[in-house]
Design a protein that fits this description.
The complex is a heterodimer of chains A (206) and B (59).
Chain A lengths: L18 H7 L1 H4 L4 H11 L6 H29 L4 H6 L3 H7 L24 H25 L3 H30 L24
Chain B lengths: L22 H7 L18 H5 L7
The chains are: A mainly alpha (206), B mainly alpha (59).
């Protein structure tokens, strides 16, 4: 279960109305490399992970990604809360406005709605940790792309914080992979699947 | 770091302990560890100080 803290992990205080910027940042809400996909990926993978420490790491990071989702949603909300119809039309945000008015709805910047095909929970610890390493890099690239294109310091500042977290998480998943490797036979890491072939892992005490 | 490297699998060196940032610097940089503070080249004036003294940051 979770407890909720009624504050953001990093403050968001945006004074401008800019649905165009919101339409780009929304990809980190419901896009292929966004925070919702990240959280669902880690919180799904954790059950079958063969080490308790790695399951715990997935819980911690999956939870933090929810806090990041909240930061992204606060940014989008603040950028659009005072938008009128003319703002939406001028920004190319009118199609979104027709379906969702000024509400939050998880979608990619290119208009593809969020779905679970954007992440994988494969059931093999080596495979899933490589997916997680790649996911952090993809999210980092998306933040790079956003920071490069968005001129407003008050919007970029929380994005810069979120980008930094992707790099920290990459390091943590890398350390998790090293821990997993230390429990496997280095002559052949791929001899069996430590999440599924449970009788194979008894000698090393995984 | 005497970590052994192996073919056909990713390897990440374990992070070594270092003196962490003070909490305000850590919040500003998104990490408490200087060696993980790897900034993007696009520079801009951080608005963190004015944000931290602002109003309700929940919405």
């Amino acid at each position: 279960m979770w407890t909720y803290e009624k504050r953001l992990q990093y403050p968001v205080n945006i004074s401008i109305t800019c649905p165009k910027t919101a339409s780009l940042i929304i990809s980190q809400f419901g896009g292929p490399d966004g925070e919702l996909a990240a959280s669902m990926r880690y919180l799904s993978q954790r059950y079958t992970m063969p080490c308790k420490e790695i399951s715990g790491l997935l819980t911690d990071i999956g939870t933090e990604e929810l806090a990041h989702l909240e930061i992204i949603c606060a940014i989008i909300y603040q950028l659009t809360k005072n938008m009128d119809v003319e703002d939406a039309k001028a920004a190319g945000f009118d199609a979104y406005y027709i379906d969702h008015t000024a509400a939050l709805w998880p979608t990619a910047a290119a208009g593809i709605p969020f779905n679970a095909c954007e992440f994988q929970s494969k059931g093999d610890a080596i495979t899933d940790l490589h997916e997680d390493l790649a996911a952090e890099q993809k999210a980092r690239t998306t933040y790079d792309n956003l920071i490069r294109i968005i001129p407003h310091a008050e919007v970029r500042d929380p994005l810069r914080f979120l980008r930094a977290r992707e790099i920290v998480h990459f390091q943590r998943f890398g350390e998790a992979l090293e821990q997993l490797k230390s429990n496997l036979d280095s002559k052949n890491f791929y001899y069996f699947n430590p999440e599924f072939d449970k009788r194979m892992k008894e000698p090393k005490g995984l | 770091m005497n970590q052994q490297l192996y073919l056909a699998i990713a390897s990440i060196p374990p992070q070594l302990w270092e003196t962490p940032y003070d909490p305000p610097t850590a919040l500003k940089n998104g990490t408490v560890f200087p060696s993980l503070n790897l900034q993007f080249y696009v520079n801009f004036e951080s608005s963190i100080n004015q944000i931290l003294t602002g109003g309700d940051s929940h919405k």
